[in-house]
Specification:
Helix content is about 50%, strand content about 10%. By secondary structure, the chain is α/β, with parallel strands linked by helices.
Length: about 550
Amino acid sequence: MCCAVYSNRENKMKDKGSGITMRLTFSIRLMAAMLLVIGHAESAKIVCVFPTASKSHVLGAQALLKELAHRGHEVTMVSTFPLKQPPKNYRDVYVPIEDAFSSIMNDFMQGGSRNMLKMLPKILRAAQESSNVTINAPEFLRLAREEQFDLAIVGFFMNSFIIGVGELFRCPTVLYFSASGSGLVNVVGNPAEVAAVPHLLLGQRNPMTFYDRVANTLLHGVEKIMMMYMRHKELPYYESNFPAEKGFRSYDDAMRNVSLVLLNTHFTQTVPRPYLPNMVEVGGIQINVKPEPMAQDLQQFLDGADRDGAIFLSFGSNLKSSTMRQDKLDAILAMIRGLKQRVIWKWDQDKMPNKPSNVFIGKWLPQDAILAHPNLKLFITHGGLGSITESMYHGVPIVGIPMFGDQDSNVAQVVKEGWGLSVSFDELTEPLLTGAVKEVLRDPKYREHIQGRSILYKDRPIGALETGVYWVEYVIRHHGAPHLHYQGADLNLFQLALLDVFAFLFVVLYIVYKLVAIAGRKVKNALFGGAKSAQKTTKKQKKT
């Protein structure tokens, strides 16, 4: 009997255990199914159209897309710079526009005019044509016919008509701008704050003097005129590619419909300024926290510079060193021959004539990894924002040779902050460049200053890449995040300055003043009018 009871109890326990196991198995399967559903729901199809011939401008967007791909999103990059080893979920669509700015850059390297106002029409035309070629390429048109996307990321530089890509795919649009904020990219209505925030071309002056504010006001005025000119040039491109008769929104409506603007800058590089929540700084997004491995020969060249150190020399991705004016090239080569340090030079040809024995050349070099190497002592650069950013992050002082655009103000800021020197390309000679290079190498204050700036630059709640990914996914999660739209973006100049409000208030006050004056006269007449009439009558009677 006891055995029977025990056996019965054991069977019940087995049944109970079996039931628990079944329920547990069912729960696990249910959770797995839910995770699959959630994962699928969170995964998005993202297209990025980056129609530029400047490889350095694309690097930040590529870093963002690679991370989005790692997180399960399907990304498609339309550009002229496909990745050599794209990750899973990452697809490149190649469009050949590499030479769009070649003639302009060659002129700069030959010492041609660097007046950006004079160069604007030529640069604008090149940017517009290369962008137009990109969105009319057969590969891109096939995407437009056959696929749909949840988000469009657009590389933005003097090609604002490209904003129609979001309209083409009927999805939210994110702008990526590889520089700091300015009126050229401010499509979301961010306050300009002309009185307190210096223009990009004025440099980072904080605080501004009275004359700085005068210059800043004039620069913003010129920028407004430039934007009107650019809009005039952009409209035909937009209307031909995204015509209203095919259901596309107008150019201005498409601009106002942008969900997010990503800026490849950080406030430690500029001055504090107000930003709307959908204008986000992601400065340094292209920088690898853990540098990627270098080619073996380059690694050995840098490792072997443990005694005297190494110098990196690069004029960026647009300017080709081989096209440099001969006297300037000879001056740089003579300077290098007089150095004990090894020099790594980004050179766009397979061979360099009269190459010094201490020089390593490469057509495309991993700048981020080179600057991160402990043996690197100095960076000789044209002063592009990406180069300045990576120097700041890795704590490497510079000698700047600015060529065009914002490079003058970038290098001037470095000199002001005390972590580098500037050499004018027009005045460049071997003694002048040698003096600047040896000064920065010899005096420890330059490295000490940049180490302090590097600490400031890195001190963030989350990294630049994580910030960019978060906000892109935020826009996806909230279907374009229309709640971020700022009403000020819909107002014209008179409305933003409250001129219509002041005019209305003036009219109202004037009407009130008139009504009060009329009412006052009537009251006065009512109170004193009879007495005055009686007085006049008495006076008349006395006269008669």
